[in-house]
Design brief:
The protein has one domain. The chain is about 40% helix and about 20% strand. The protein contains 5 helices and 5 strands, in the order H-E-E-E-E-E-H-H-H-H.
């Protein structure tokens, strides 16, 4: 079982997290910066990826505490919050949101084609993008994929960051893990919740 879990993480979970982190970073770099009194567009950055069996739009909204979203039109309508921007303007992925997104694609059996398309797009756009900002603690997206999961406190006792293969112990894809106790910061956050990439 341990080998199958390691294989699952190596071939599915970490590459998925790496690709999503890469897309959020690229969307952040490409976001619109309206000048002066010019009104901000509803979406500062937007990307649509359509492939066999799926049609997904990624957006970076101009406001809100959860500006990164994925809108899935196929295989059926669904919405997932993927992250936010830090005070320094860097993308901060929500580990739980990315896992929900991953689980949805896995159960709908479109994870593999989507991951292949997303990884290819991120690699192509990354080759044309500026170097990673010096304020980013991770030298590469692969480091970010593993480091952010651990840094966000989502790492499970087994060291997998809470990612579980189908048939493994712990939460199955589509299920939530144990909820953590809410803090005062969470209560405040709950109270506050209320261009194309090129």
């Amino acid at each position: 079982m341990e080998k199958s879990r390691e294989e699952f993480l190596r071939t599915k979970a970490y590459p998925f997290y790496e690709a999503v982190c890469g897309l959020l970073r690229l969307m952040t770099e490409a976001r619109a910066h309206p000048a002066g009194m010019e009104p901000k567009p509803l979406y500062l950055s937007e990307c649509r990826i359509k492939g066999e069996g799926y049609d997904i739009r990624f957006v970076l909204r101009n406001k809100g505490i959860r500006p990164f979203l994925a809108f899935m039109d196929e295989p059926w309508p669904h919405k997932v919050y993927l992250g936010r921007l830090t005070k320094h303007g860097l993308p901060h992925p929500f580990v739980e949101g990315v896992k929900v997104f991953f689980n949805f694609l896995l159960m709908e059996e479109v994870l593999d084609p989507f991951l292949a398309d997303l990884a290819a797009i991120v690699a192509e756009w990354s080759a044309m993008s500026p170097p990673r900002p010096s304020s980013c603690p991770f030298a590469s997206l692969a480091d970010c994929a593993q480091g952010c999961a651990q840094g966000c406190g989502a790492e499970g006792a087994d060291g997998t960051g809470g990612w579980k293969p189908l048939g493994g112990d712990g939460p199955m894809p589509g299920e939530r893990g144990p909820a953590r106790a809410k803090t005062e910061k969470d209560a405040g956050r709950d109270a506050d919740a209320g261009g194309t990439l090129h």
